[in-house]
Amino acid sequence: MNLRLLQQSHRPRCSRLNLIPKIVPQAFKCVEYIEGNGEPGSIKKVTFGEESQFNYMKQKVEALDKENFVYIYSVIEGDALMNKLEKITYETKLEDYPDGGDPYARLLVSITP
């Protein structure tokens, strides 16, 4: 059992989150957690593909509320901040339409100069 866990830990860290790079490899080269595994406080590094104007960005998971379908993360480092912003925070919440229609995602963005 320990050997199996050791073997898994030697896989490239990019392999965990490589669905998006497989779908759009020209836009994303690699997505990997460099700290944590997705819980609040985790840091994810996104390395962009050759067709992107950016090289990379780091995202920090600020909050994850599974019961209320809320996910908050901040872009804390990288080209996407253009050396002008401290961070960009995204809050995504899945909600039902008031009349009982299909669920939709609400996105709030706040920028810290």
From TrEMBL:
<keyword id="KW-0611">Plant defense</keyword>
<dbReference type="GO" id="GO:0005737">
    <property type="term" value="C:cytoplasm"/>
</dbReference>
<keyword id="KW-0568">Pathogenesis-related protein</keyword>
<dbReference type="InterPro" id="IPR024949">
    <property type="entry name" value="Bet_v_I_allergen"/>
</dbReference>
<dbReference type="InterPro" id="IPR050279">
    <property type="entry name" value="Plant_def-hormone_signal"/>
</dbReference>
<dbReference type="GO" id="GO:0004864">
    <property type="term" value="F:protein phosphatase inhibitor activity"/>
</dbReference>
<protein>
    <recommendedName>
        <fullName>Bet v I/Major latex protein domain-containing protein</fullName>
    </recommendedName>
</protein>
<dbReference type="Pfam" id="PF00407">
    <property type="entry name" value="Bet_v_1"/>
</dbReference>
<dbReference type="GO" id="GO:0005634">
    <property type="term" value="C:nucleus"/>
</dbReference>
<dbReference type="GO" id="GO:0038023">
    <property type="term" value="F:signaling receptor activity"/>
</dbReference>
<dbReference type="InterPro" id="IPR000916">
    <property type="entry name" value="Bet_v_I/MLP"/>
</dbReference>
<dbReference type="GO" id="GO:0006952">
    <property type="term" value="P:defense response"/>
</dbReference>
<dbReference type="GO" id="GO:0010427">
    <property type="term" value="F:abscisic acid binding"/>
</dbReference>
<comment type="similarity">
    <text>Belongs to the BetVI family.</text>
</comment>
<feature type="domain" description="Bet v I/Major latex protein">
    <location>
        <begin position="16"/>
        <end position="94"/>
    </location>
</feature>
<dbReference type="GO" id="GO:0009738">
    <property type="term" value="P:abscisic acid-activated signaling pathway"/>
</dbReference>
<dbReference type="InterPro" id="IPR023393">
    <property type="entry name" value="START-like_dom_sf"/>
</dbReference>
